[in-house]
Design brief:
heterodimer; A: mainly alpha; two-stranded antiparallel ribbon; 12 helices; 4% strand; elongated; B: alpha+beta; twelve-stranded mixed β-sheet; four-stranded antiparallel β-sheet; 15 helices; 20 strands; globular
Chain lengths: 364, 565
């Protein structure tokens, strides 16, 4: 495949890695750094088309209630073990007496059991796929938000104050980083799924989707906080920070008013990639029974249910698997595209390192 | 028997059958269901099978037993795992089907002499018996084991509170049990009961009272099980992961001579791994990585395995079992009988038959087919409209309930189905699916929060209907921990009837009394029973399927496994 022509390198205000504070005064808005980044992103056809795919996936899962109410006429957790399906003159059993669920009916039964039934419980696979996608995306996005928020705060504190604050935060992150994340996630997920969680006034019931969100958020913080801390450390040396301090700005103002805007591009890119990672993490946890709890579905639990019938009804595991793959792939490609658009230099650096392109505007 | 977490039981014991096979005390009605009768020829002889002697059996369980401690375990897994390790004074004949329900002498020389108006049982220990650590077995070890069982609050203690002084001892844990007198010199053991108990011989054949050396700590020893007397001993027990069997060094030297009719076993030992994915277990058996899976083939593979291997590596076994959903009758919303009736109308055994892939036959009563006193009735034909109407009438104030089940397929699906049914009735449900290793420990602990309703099963401990009433539905069986009366059902009239019936020898009159009690209790609906289950044995192609003995109480006996020539 071709690699996109390197967008022209636009000199940007701020130091290396610094993105774009608001357009400097006197620069027309259509030349603002955000606008330029947008232009660069739009030129990246691959990223745009995968952004389109991601939007389609989001629309697909948001349409779940519409499909459930108007086409399938069933909810995601409703069991139809003994129901019979009339297809033309033929009567088909949703689950046979031997416990085999019906395969995909496509539109033969008016959209009912479009993708067949999910298991011996005879639930509509299509409806579960749509609702499960909502769960998966919701967990991915919300845990991505939490991770990013916590990571940014920690990264700012550690990078700005340095000293013992940095030492404590950085070591905690190191410890989290060194844990076998999946094993810990399973242990935590399983025990919390049963007992629920109580932190101060906040109570999370066992079985709630907030449990996997909580688990995922904890373990992914270091992956975002460490690079942000590094960047804050570098930014702290910059003249504009010194200038702000010289003008009498307090630490909060420097951190959130001066440094944070310069982190915007990094945060956006990390957030996007983080959603993808978190969705994979959620799928793994759910597959292993430590994430989303039955009877609710997520793509991960659907694979786990489908795995039982892999030999006879492979689609039950393949379809949610493909959905996860497409979503994660599109988020990754969009994330890469965003990074290229927001911070062209980083791509050049990466690729140059790999010996693929010459720096600055060379194309392959 | 016990709950099966999925599997079955145990083993054990065997038959020391030489001496008498008579049945006193209510055992002996051979109504047990007859599972497969293949293999029943191999009763107690040390084992001339057609296969090869020796070899190490690679076995796999889907979950780790509740306890690896003879006084504590009350699941099929535990009993199957320890049956050939801890032999009680009496035991069951090593035979498949109804014959395997016969009580025969174990460590005792012969069946007990019963005197004093059926209240005193006198037995003599066989001379020359030793534990696997070389210590001699003493008559007083029996008393020690009984006391230990009470001290660790075993779920099996409900069977032994009729011993004089035992009820008091269960509460105070001190002062001894005056109803048991032992003489280490003569090996005499005399047990006196408060009142006659028709099932007591069966209960003496349970592992709860298998002797252990005095000084064995009074705590859960699952990680380091005490020495036993059987042909095999447990080594390398890793809770949650697996364990191994080796030959008990004292068996050949001492015990097999003292009890020659007890099988010695063909294999030299076994290694057991817990593999939590039954699909993987099936694949591993097919590929010969493991020789035997203790739990049944999962529903998703059942038809395929049955078609392919039935007769050669696979046998379907009938069991005497009831699968049911319990409802805590002492708290809202299930303290209202109308709500419980509604649940019975709403649960449809026909749907559960499919969820169990045809491995379950729908019933809606406490006693299963094959149990004396069973007579089919149908109080609650499936009727969702009626169920909803009853809920409307009852108008329960607490609609938030938690539904419990375990991780074993298809029990987890049964739990999901039940959760859906309750939602349809209008409840707000939270489903909790607990690891099968400790499911019964969790739901048997009264301090576990939100125990409202959930799944359970019950496999007979012995072929007597008392086993389906006293441990599961009598008020005296409501325990703080290791509870078996999950519904906390405590009805004075039934308590009285249960204790009256168990004092009598089982005859036609008693059977019909049990029959009507079954129906009367179901009118109160503490449970929503949904079926009786078939189980199966699936082995690799190097194992002699025909010679495996399948006991109605202990399931596969380890001593009956042998490799093909």
């Amino acid at each position: 495949m071709t690699i996109d022509p390197q967008p022209e390198a636009v000199p940007v205000a701020g130091g290396p890695g610094a993105a774009f504070p608001a357009a400097p005064e006197g620069v027309s808005p259509d030349r603002s750094p955000w606008y330029l980044a947008y232009k660069r992103f739009v030129r990246n056809r691959l990223a745009v088309s995968f952004l389109g795919l991601f939007v389609l996936i989001v629309i697909f899962v948001l349409a779940a209630p519409i499909w459930a109410d108007n086409v399938a006429h069933t909810g995601p957790n409703e069991s139809h073990t003994l129901q019979k399906l009339r297809v033309g003159d033929e009567v088909r059993e949703v689950v046979t007496p031997e416990g085999r669920p019906i395969g995909p009916q496509w539109f033969e039964a008016g959209g009912k059991f479009f993708l067949g039934a999910d298991s011996r419980l005879g639930r509509d696979e299509m409806v579960r796929l749509m609702y499960g996608g909502r769960t998966s995306l919701f967990i991915g996005v919300v845990s991505g938000l939490i991770t990013t928020l916590v990571a940014v705060v920690l990264g700012l504190l550690a990078g700005y104050y340095r000293g013992w604050v940095d030492a404590v935060i950085a070591r905690i992150l190191d410890v989290l980083w060194s844990l076998p994340v999946l094993l810990f996630g399973i242990a935590l997920g399983v025990s919390l799924a049963v007992s629920g969680l109580q932190i101060g006034p906040l109570t999370i019931e066992g079985g709630s989707n907030w449990i996997p969100i909580f688990v995922i958020s904890i373990f992914t913080v270091p992956y975002v906080a460490r690079p942000i801390r590094g960047e804050v450390l570098a930014l702290g040396e910059k003249e504009f920070v010194e200038a702000a301090v010289a003008q009498g700005a307090g630490p909060l103002r420097v951190m959130f008013g001066e440094i944070l805007p310069n982190l915007a591009s990094t945060i956006i890119v990390f957030f996007t990639l983080n959603i993808a990672n978190n969705m994979l993490f959620e799928a793994a946890l759910s597959f292993l029974g430590a994430g989303v709890q039955p009877p609710n579905s997520s793509w991960g639990t659907m694979i786990s249910v489908g795995e039982e019938l892999l030999t006879t009804q492979p689609l039950l595991a393949i379809i949610p698997g493909v959905m996860i793959m497409l979503t994660v792939l599109s988020l990754n490609i969009v994330g890469d595209g965003l990074r290229d658009a927001l911070d062209p230099r980083s791509k050049v650096r990466l690729e140059a390192h790999a010996g693929m392109v010459e720096p600055e505007g060379a194309s392959v | 028997m016990k709950k099966i977490v999925l599997t079955f039981l145990v083993v054990a014991l065997a038959a020391v059958g030489v001496i008498g096979l008579s049945s006193c005390g209510g055992s002996g009605n051979d109504t047990t269901g007859g599972g497969s009768s293949s293999g029943s020829g191999t009763t107690a002889e040390g084992g001339e099978g057609e296969g090869e002697e020796g070899g190490i059996l690679n076995a796999t369980y889907a979950s780790f037993p509740d306890y690896m401690d003879p006084q504590l375990s009350y699941t099929a897994e535990g009993w199957t795992a320890m049956g050939e390790v801890y032999i009680p004074l009496l035991t069951y004949k090593h035979a498949s089907g109804a014959e395997g329900a016969e009580v025969v002498p174990g460590l005792a020389k012969e069946l007990p002499k019963i005197s004093n108006g059926e209240k005193t049982y006198t037995l003599f220990l066989r001379p020359g018996l030793k534990y696997s650590d070389g210590k001699p077995v003493k008559a007083s070890d029996f008393l020690y084991a009984v006391e230990r069982m009470f001290k660790v609050n075993s779920g099996g203690s409900v069977f032994y509170t009729s011993i004089v002084g035992a009820e008091q001892f269960a509460k105070t844990k001190q002062g001894g049990i005056p109803g048991i007198k032992t003489n280490d010199k003569t090996g005499e053991i005399q047990i006196t009961l408060v009142e006659p108990r028709g099932t007591f011989e069966n209960e003496l054949a349970l592992m709860f009272v298998a002797p252990v050396p005095q000084g064995t700590p009074n705590e859960d020893l699952s990680a380091n099980p005490p020495p036993g007397t059987g042909p095999y001993m447990l080594v390398n027990v890793k809770p949650g992961q697996g364990w191994e069997y080796e030959r008990n060094p004292e068996w050949a030297k001492a015990n097999s001579k003292a009890m020659p009719e007890y099988p010695t076993g063909h294999i030299d030992g076994a290694e057991v791994d817990v593999i939590r994915n039954p699909q993987t277990q099936v694949n591993d058996i097919e590929q010969g990585k493991y020789d035997w899976m203790q739990n049944p083939v999962p529903a998703a593979r059942y038809t395929e395995v049955k078609d392919k291997y039935e007769g050669s590596q696979f046998i379907v076994r009938d069991t005497i079992s009831t699968y049911y959903f319990w409802m805590k009758t002492d708290r809202a919303p299930f303290d209202d009988q109308k709500v419980r009736e509604a649940v019975n109308y709403a649960v449809d055994p026909a749907a559960l038959e499919r969820i169990y892939s045809g491995q379950l036959k729908g019933t809606q009563q406490i006693l299963p087919p094959g149990m004396p006193g069973y007579s089919k009735f149908e109080l609650y034909p499936h009727d969702m409209a009626k169920a909803k109407e009853l809920i409307k009438e009852a108008n329960p104030s607490d609609m938030n309930i938690t539904v419990w089940t375990d991780t074993e397929s298809p029990n987890n699906e049964a739990g999901e189905y039940y959760d859906g049914v309750l939602k349809e009735l209008g409840f707000n449900t939270t489903l909790k699916i607990i690891n099968a290793d400790n499911y019964f420990t969790v739901i048997g602990n009264q301090s576990t929060p939100d125990l409202d309703t959930g799944w359970s099963d019950w496999f007979q401990d012995y072929p007597h209907p008392n086993d389906f009433f006293q441990p599961l539905l009598a008020g005296e069986s409501i325990l703080q921990t290791n509870n078996g009366n999950f519904a906390n059902f405590d009805n004075p009239a039934f308590n009285k009837e249960i204790s009256k019936l168990r004092a009598e020898q089982l005859g036609p009159e008693q059977e019909s009394a049990y029959e009507s009690m079954d129906e009367e209790i179901m009118k109160e609906a503490p449970w929503a029973p949904y079926g009786t289950r078939t189980l199966d044995t699936f082995v690799a192609d190097n194992i002699e399927l025909e010679s495996i003995i399948y006991s109605p109480t202990f399931f596969e006996y380890l001593t009956s496994f042998e490799f093909k020539e």
